[in-house]
Amino acid sequence: MVQDTVADGATGDADACCTPLGDVDADAMAIDLQVLSAMGNDTRYELLRRIANADDGVCVCDLEAAVGVSQSAVSQALSRLYAAGLVTRRKEGSWRYYEPTETTVALLETLDDLRGTYE
Amino acid sequence: MVQDTVADGATGDADACCTPLGDVDADAMAIDLQVLSAMGNDTRYELLRRIANADDGVCVCDLEAAVGVSQSAVSQALSRLYAAGLVTRRKEGSWRYYEPTETTVALLETLDDLRGTYE
DNA sequence: GAAACATATTAGTATTTTCTTGTATAAGCT
DNA sequence: AGCTTATACAAGAAAATACTAATATGTTTC
């Protein structure tokens, strides 16, 4: 498997403190950044938490009421979460239900563990 | 333990599709957002990966060579990672060595697992 | 102590992001 | 078909972010 990497600038002679570092996988980086930057925003984080908290799908109208931004902003936020693979969406009549993906569940769980939520 | 929450706007009458959702813990949210938004940036993500890849501490000069931004930008990025609790720093002479925290290790590992890096 | 080096800080600018308003699409109801 | 509701899309304004350049601080070396 060919693996793109971000070039390591330090190809020259070894300086006093500087040992060359292992490069970072560019594909992995792109994917992770999409996920992290999608989650790392007030509105989207809160939407995601609420989606993850619900048992089987939340419709957009629920979410609109909960966060303090316009319908349009909620829609855009959800689209971005979807693009990042953090939610799935399913249409039911004229409603649209969002559910968390495994990625979302795993990451939120990790964050909870790290904070020591239940200590 | 008192637990701040973000108010759930949907306190009114129950609409067609809308069931009220569980609120989101505001403290947890603040902490998570600091972590996520710190990681969710090109420069900082790459710095963090390189710090995590190294065995025992990376000095700033190594990092500067690796990412394509100014010394100042690197310093600012590292400060932000530090503020978010993602790295520790230790001074050794005039160099400063950065190391990943448990949070960083855990999150990067989770991300790797989710991507299925080793499949 | 002065020069050179490693890193941090400040201030300003450029870029990116996020929101709002207005409009479009699509489904359900009468 | 026309009206209403649910959601998405587009364009632009406003806010937040990330960079650069310049300067400051602290360390080493001579």
Q: What does this protein structure show overall?
A:
The structure is a homodimer of 119-residue chains. By secondary structure, chain A is mainly alpha-helical. Chain A has one domain (26-115): Orthogonal Bundle (Arc Repressor Mutant, subunit A). Chain A is 50% helix and 12% strand. Chain A is built from 5 helices and 3 strands; from the N terminus they run ααβααββα. Chain A has helices at residues 26-39, 42-53, 60-66, 71-83, 102-115, and strands at residues 58-59, 87-92, 95-100. Chain A has a 3-stranded antiparallel beta sheet. In chain A, β2 and β3 (95-100) form a beta hairpin. In chain A, α2 crosses α4. The longest helix of chain A is centred in the N-terminal third of the chain and has 14 residues, at 26-39. The radius of gyration of chain A is 19 Å and the shape is globular. The first copy, chain A, starts with 25 loop residues before the first helix and ends with a helix. The interface between A and B is large, with 52 and 52 residues. Chain A binds a DNA duplex (30 and 30 nucleotides) through α4.
**Oligomer designation:** homodimer
Radius of gyration of chain A, whole Å: 19 Å
Shape of chain A: globular
**Unreliable sequence segments of chain A:** 7-16
Q: How many discrete structural domains of chain A? A: 1
The biggest sheet of chain A amounts to:
3 strands, antiparallel
CATH fold descriptor of chain A = Arc Repressor Mutant, subunit A
CATH class of chain A: Mainly Alpha
Q: What's the count of strands of chain A?
A: 3
Structural class of chain A: mainly alpha
Helix content of chain A: 40-55%
Q: What is the percentage of strand-forming residues of chain A? A: 5-15%
Protein name (chains A, B): Transcriptional regulator
Domain HTH arsR-type (chains A, B): 24-119
GO molecular function, one term (chains A, B): DNA-binding transcription factor activity
Keywords (chains A, B): DNA-binding, Transcription, Transcription regulation
